[in-house]
Amino acid sequence: MARPSPYSPEFREEAVQLALKSSKPIAHVARELNMNPETLRTWVRQYEREHGRQDGPLPVDERARLKELERRVRELETENSFLKKAAAYFARDPR
User: Fold this and answer.
1) Predicted model pTM
2) Residue 93: helix, strand or coil by DSSP?
3) What phi and psi, each to the nearest 5 degrees, are found at residue 53?
């Protein structure tokens, strides 16, 4: 069984907010708070996952959706290019 955390939930929340709002690296903020940088980094990642921050890699389903949308954009750009060429061809003077 894991031992209880020496940090209160209030301290944890304040530390995460300080790390997110600060322009300093997480390791620097952790040193100022006299704690392990990896502990604070883990808390920040967990907070970002729970509160919808997407600074990290996209989830698998979002990556698949993005890939499909990028494929569709390429397809539409190809069709658009073809239609522009066809319109230019038929717009030529029939002399």
Assistant:
1) 0.53
2) coil
3) -70, 130
The per-residue pLDDT for 35 is 94
| Residue 30 · residue 39 · CB < 8 Å | yes
Q: For residue 52, what are its two tokens?
A: 């919808």
Q: Which two tokens stand for residue 77?
A: 């750009």
Phi, psi torsion values for 59, nearest 5 degrees:
-65, 160
pLDDT digits (tens, 9 = 90+) for 25-60: 999 999 999 999 999 999 999 998 888 765 567 778
Q: How far apart are CA 43 and CA 49, in angstroms?
A: 10
Token pair recorded at residue 82: 């073809």
Taking the CA atoms of residue 5, residue 11, residue 15 and residue 21 in that order, the dihedral angle to the nearest 10 degrees is 150
d(CA 20, CA 55): 12
Query: What does DSSP assign to residue 66?
Result: H
Residue type, 36: N
